[in-house]
Amino acid sequence: MHKVKLSTKAQKDLKHLARTVIYDKIVAVLHELSRDPYSGDIKCLTTHKLADWRKRVGDYRILYDIENKKKEVHILRIWRRGHGY
């Protein structure tokens, strides 16, 4: 199991989604990332400056990095599709 850590900006992004339909789905996906950060609808972002990976959740994208040695997943941003990259 990996430990999921949210950056300050990701925490703000998630806070803005509170009381929305997608909030519960994103929280569930964050739990999935702790079990297996490589499963589901993910993509390796080879040219993105902010993150190495993205996971799609409806119209939203979770941008994250994985540190396998420390067993950590760093959530950097949670953006609406097309907003951040």
Secondary-structure blueprint of this entry?
Elements: E1 3-6, H1 8-16, H2 21-35, E2 42-44, E3 53-57, E4 60-67, E5 72-80
Parallel strand pairs: 1-5
Antiparallel strand pairs: 2-3, 3-4, 4-5
Overall description:
It is a single chain. Helix content is about 30%, strand content about 35%. The chain contains two helices and five strands. The chain has a five-stranded mixed β-sheet with strand order 1-5-4-3-2. Strand 4 and strand 5 (about 70-80) form a beta hairpin. The N and C termini lie far apart (about 30 Å). The mean pLDDT is about 95.
Please sum up the structure shown.
This protein has 85 residues and is α+β, with helices and mostly antiparallel strands. The protein contains two helices and five strands.
Index terms:
85 residues, alpha+beta, YaeB-like fold, five-stranded mixed sheet, 2 helices
CATH superfamily: RelE-like
Shape: globular
> Which sheet architecture does the biggest sheet show?
5 strands, mixed
Count every beta strand, where a strand is a DSSP E run of 2 or more residues: 5
Helical segment count:
2
Which value, in Å, is the CA radius of gyration? 12 Å
The unreliable regions are none
What is the CATH architecture assignment? 2-Layer Sandwich
Reading the helices and strands in chain order gives EHHEEEE
Structural class comes to alpha+beta
Q: What is the domain total for the residues?
A: 1
- Just give the CATH class: Alpha Beta
What is the fold named in CATH at topology level? YaeB-like fold
> Could you tell me the mean pLDDT?
93
End-to-end separation in angstroms reads: 29 Å
Strand order of the largest sheet: 1-5-4-3-2
Percent helix, as a range, is 25-40%
